[in-house]
Amino acid sequence: MSTAPSDSAPQAGSRLNGRVIAISLGAALGGFLFGFDSSVINGAVDAIQGEWELSDAFTGFAVASALLGCALGAWFAGSVANKYGRIRVMVLASGLFLASAVGSGLAFGIWDLVAWRFLGGLAVGAASVIAPAYIAEVSPSKFRGRLGSLQQLAIVTGIFTAILTGQLFAGAAGGADNELWLGLDAWRWMFMAEAIPAVIYGFAALRLPESPRYLVSKHRTDEAAEVLRLFTGVQDVDGTIDEIRESVGEDERRSLGDLRGHAFGLKPIVWTGILLSVFQQFVGINVIFYYSTTLWKSVGFDEDQAFLTSTITSITNIVVTIVAILLVDRIGRRLLLLIGSAGMTLSLGIMAIAFTQAITDAKGDVTDFAGSWGTIAVVGANAFVVFFGATWGPVVWVLLGEMFPNKIRASALAVAAAAQWLANWLITVSFPQFASIGLTFAYGFYASMALLSLIFVYFRVPETKGMELEEMSADVSVKRGKFVRSTAGVADVG
């Protein structure tokens, strides 16, 4: 890591130092495992189904079981982080990732595999909460957006690595269900490969400094001062700690009860976080490519090139996430989300229209498109990936890490992330029913969700660009994307 910032720096966080980049990357390793674990199952599904002769329905349940673990892990991560600290949650998550990787690779039956995948889901859920919260709490406000976006960059890199690893192992063995090394099939090694980044994540977490906001809440102000000075670049350390102490309420116990408010039982800002999470999934990002092979075949690709299309998609995700990192602190979170919502509405609408021109076989499966509609559908699908990857993918994680008041950040983020995983599960299990009605209906539904997300962002999502985390607790409501300050005095958001 680099040396601490010079005392001659004009203001806190006026430049981005190597130390805060390093610890943000260390925390984002949880995002890499998040992406890897979520994607690694894809290359092993067919082999698992053949290994234990599973029905399509039960195979779907086995695949989706990890999502329920994700929701549960996210739900409890906030409470654990408030009580024991952000670093201990990272170390715990790394241990769960490691156990899941080895256990899944050595599973002796389908229920054994489901249990290990559920355990991995707990780790993914915890990582999805703790990384954005930690990065937001250690980052200078000027650069918090781009540092927070490292979470999404790590996720899409993990997805790409899982796809690449699976292809390499399957290729070396001549198929995912063929023996690779030590008498074990290639699909088992796909899971066990996750053990390597899990161990790296655990060791990296042990070397990270604890969040200064957590340290202040536990009366460890000397440690908090050192973190703020060395990593965040704060010059007026005493003044910052006083602000943190006031906003955190260091003598209060943290619980999910802190989220209660008058708006349907929760504070309005918590509902904003929940709906951000739900819309991120309800636009259909995790099922949009169920028919990607069909789309590519319609314009001349053969089935053997499915890996190539997946690789192109993954690389596109990485590139557009880098674009988001460059823009989020320049033009702001809210504008990026508005652009993304508009672009996703248009691209998903194009796909819905294109599938009205699809040619199907006796089973109802798409085999071709009339005229040039196949090409139009492919353009729509890739435009959707670009708009999502450059906006809603990374920006939601940035906002969830920074938009909540200090005293409820971990708990509120946990609830929002749990809602995100439940929404992910609902979209995943509902897609077969949507597809049975027709892909025009499915993509039309996702387009309508994108349109609703545009309206939601305009009226209810605040702009947090450049704001200190302590400022988040000095506002009472959100009106057309702006915090409306109390004229009667300082009050919490919501």
Q: Superfamily at the CATH H level of the largest domain?
A: MFS general substrate transporter like domains
Count of DSSP-assigned helices: 19
Low-confidence stretches: 1-13, 485-494
The quaternary organization reads as: single chain
How large a portion of the residues is in β-strands, by DSSP E?
Answer: under 5%
Q: Total strand count, please?
A: 6
Helix amount: 55-70%
Q: Calculate the mean pLDDT score and round it.
A: 79
Structural class of the helix and strand makeup?
mainly alpha
Shape: globular
The radius of gyration is 23 Å
Structure write-up:
By secondary structure, the protein is mainly alpha-helical. The chain folds into two domains: 12-208, Growth Hormone, Chain: A; 256-494, MFS general substrate transporter like domains (Growth Hormone, Chain: A). The chain is 68% helix and 4% strand. The chain has a two-stranded antiparallel sheet. The chain has a two-stranded antiparallel sheet with strand order 3-4. A two-stranded antiparallel sheet has the order 5-6. The longest helix is centred in the last third of the chain and has 30 residues, at 373-402. Residues 1-13 and 485-494 have low confidence and may be disordered.
